[in-house]
Amino acid sequence: MLIQFTRKVPPYNSGEVAGFPVLEADRLVRLGAATPVKEAPAVPAPAQGNAYPDKSMPQAPANRQMGRKGR
User: Fold this and answer.
1) What's the Cα-to-Cα distance from 34 to each of 23, 43, 65, rounded to whole Å?
2) Minimum mean pLDDT range among 4-18, 20-34, 38-52
3) What DSSP letter does each residue of 13-63 carry, written as one string?
4) By C-alpha distance, which of 22, 14, 18, 16 is closest to 2?
5) pTM of the prediction?
6) Which of 7, 58, 70, 71 has its CA 20 to 30 A from that of 48?
7) Cβ atoms of residues 33 and 5 within 8 Å
8) Which superkingdom (predicted)?
9) Which pLDDT does position 30 carry in this prediction?
């Protein structure tokens, strides 16, 4: 059962949503520490597009790239 905390209950902060077994969720609601959530929270859609739209990631000059010396 999903609940939203109305006050801080370690390790949860006020406003956070968490899932619990029904008996534990009912206990937290009866104590006034949480309210039941009717629907699952919306999950944001993944970002569209490429993180590097121009596909030109900066590169260090060959003589400055990290690597092992002396091998």
Assistant:
1) 13, 21, 54
2) 38-52
3) PTT-EEE--HHHHHHHHHTTSEEE-SSPPPPPPPPPS-SSTT-------GG
4) 18
5) 0.55
6) 58
7) yes
8) Bacteria
9) 97
pLDDT digits (tens, 9 = 90+) for 39-68: 765 777 776 666 655 656 666 666 666 666
Token pair of 7 as six digits: 């006050």
Structure tokens at 39: 């629907």
Kindly state the helix (H) or strand (E) to which residue 2 belongs, with its residue range.
strand 2-5
Residues in the chain: 71
CA atoms within 13 A on the CB side of 12: 16
